[in-house]
Design a protein that fits this description.
Layout: H1 3-22, E1 67-72, H2 104-127, E2 132-137, E3 143-147, H3 150-157, E4 162-167, E5 170-173, H4 179-182, H5 184-190, E6 202-207, E7 241-242, E8 251-256, H6 280-289, E9 294-298, E10 301-305, E11 313-318, E12 334-335, H7 336-348, E13 353-356, E14 358-360, H8 371-381, E15 385-389, E16 410-412, E17 424-426, E18 441-443
Parallel strand pairs: 6-11, 6-13, 7-8, 8-11, 13-15, 15-16
Antiparallel strand pairs: 1-3, 1-4, 2-3, 5-12, 5-14, 9-10, 17-18
Helix pairs in contact: 1-5, 1-6, 7-8
Length: 467
């Protein structure tokens, strides 16, 4: 192994360690709900018997989700045995082994899959009249998202060349972290210092968006964590990609994935969170790669913050958003159809690591080919490090969420910690009348869990600072 290869591997280890922090999640942002087990491909329930302290037996096949993920039998491009892997002239820039989307053989195979999918869609039109294909996948998953009824899904499941037909279900966000909690400063020292940690590594974040924007004159006006002063775009790549209004030399990709039947609220239809959008993605991205020693003002308190791999590039895939839906379970969550598309694109865009601070809304026994797990594992086959949150439902047994329960990905459990940026008192002053319970409220550290070691400057709290 050359010295440059060793350096790159250490950098990648640092970023993976970042994600072990990013996905620590004692506080979820979705409502509590029971997690039913999804059906097997033939529609039979795979739920275990109800056991005290575990999830109840339910059968999602009895629920008409409206959209279904159709997996086809042929291997996706990333998992194909003849897939061409990139061989880099400079291993320090990117290691050999990553799926090479531009290789002629890979493009030919993707073209073959596209032809096979078109042929299948012709059959689909006869089997499920009125069904519409909303998304198509070829890199991490070979298949498509189809809007059709439960009865039509059952008929499609029996067609030749179909691997599985599974319901499109919701995934929810999870997250909280701190570099000191995982010993990041030790890795920083091995990389020549904090500011160099993560250099040369591209981390895709599938979340609610990363707040990167410019003012009318073109100057950077986004979250200070992602100021691109001193950065250069990756050498030899096609970057920036996607909606370049929301990219710079630090955040090199910006893509959006909105549900056709449930669009975002007005002003929230771009790659960055709007007035009603969640800062969750900005926070998780800051935990990964907020620039070293970024100075921010948090409600009058000056704070110095940093990501764990501050010199890594980021790639923004916005899938979670505030929508028009009046159903709180749907609004703010994301669904398989769009999440798989984001993974597909991130692999094709050249991500080294994909960070996923979210998990399933159901209990998956892996008794059927879950499309999210299939996509995650194919991304690993493509040479990408996939990291997922185990979820916020522990510490009981059988509470790990999919796709974190796949043996190919890195699944990260939650911890509880005590950390405060500023202690004091808060008063709500309006609108009147203000309940007495909202006045003179103490602000301080959590009253449970171990104290977090290290100074406040080592802690990461990278949410948007603007109102």
């Amino acid at each position: 192994m050359t010295g440059s290869e060793t350096t790159w591997r250490v950098r990648l280890l640092a970023v993976v360690t970042v994600l072990l922090a990013t996905l620590l999640s004692p506080a979820g942002v979705a409502r509590a709900f029971a997690k039913p087990a999804p059906p097997s491909p033939d529609g039979r329930s795979t739920s275990p018997p109800t056991v005290s302290g575990r999830l109840p037996a339910n059968d999602l096949a009895s629920v008409d989700t409206g959209r279904w993920i159709v997996q086809l039998a042929e291997q996706p491009a990333a998992a194909h045995v003849r897939a061409v892997r990139a061989v880099q002239a400079s291993p320090a820039a990117q290691p050999a082994g990553r799926y090479h989307a531009a290789a002629a053989d890979n493009q030919a195979y993707e073209s073959h899959l596209a032809g096979s999918q078109r042929a299948f869609e012709a059959t689909l039109a006869h089997t499920a009249k009125g069904a519409t294909v909303e998304r198509r996948y070829s890199v991490a998953l070979n298949g498509m998202a189809v809007r059709m009824s439960k009865d039509q899904a059952a008929a499609v499941r029996r067609l030749p060349g179909v691997k599985a037909v599974t319901p499109d279900v919701a995934y929810k966000l999870d997250m909280y972290s701190t570099p000191a909690q995982i010993g990041a400063p030790t890795l920083w020292n091995e990389l020549g210092g904090q500011a160099n940690a993560g250099a040369g590594v591209k981390v895709a974040v599938i979340d609610t968006g990363i707040y990167v924007t410019k003012d009318a004159s073109g100057r950077y006006a986004g979250n200070p964590c992602f100021d691109d002063a001193g950065y250069q775009l990756p050498a030899g790549g096609p970057y920036p990609l996607g909606d370049t209004r929301f990219t710079n030399r630090k955040v090199i990709v910006a893509r959006t994935y909105f549900r056709p039947d449930d669009p975002p609220l007005p002003g929230d239809d771009t790659a960055i969170p709007g007035p009603e959008g969640s800062p969750h993605g900005t926070h998780t991205s800051g935990t990964v790669a907020c620039n070293a020693n970024t100075h921010v003002d948090l409600q009058g308190t000056p704070v110095t913050i940093s990501g764990v791999a501050p010199h890594a590039w980021l790639m923004n895939y916005r899938v979670f958003y505030a929508s028009h839906s009046t159903e709180d379970f749907q609004n703010g969550n994301a669904y398989v159809a769009e999440l798989v598309q984001a993974i597909d694109d991130a692999v094709r865009d050249g991500a080294d690591v994909i960070s996923n601070s979210w998990g399933s809304s159901y209990q998956n026994t892996l008794a059927w080919p879950d499309p999210m797990v299939q996509a995650a594992e194919s991304a690993v086959d493509a040479g990408v490090v996939m990291v997922f949150a185990n979820g916020n439902a522990g510490p009981d047994t059988a509470t790990t969420e999919a796709p974190a329960n796949s043996p190919k990905v890195i699944g990260v459990g939650a911890v509880t910690k005590d950390a405060a940026i500023s202690s004091g008192v808060i008063d709500v002053t309006g609108p009147a009348p203000v309940p007495v319970t909202l006045t003179a409220r103490d602000i301080g550290p959590a009253q449970f869990g171990p104290a977090a070691p290290g100074p406040a400057s080592a802690r990461s709290c990278s949410s948007r600072t603007e109102p």
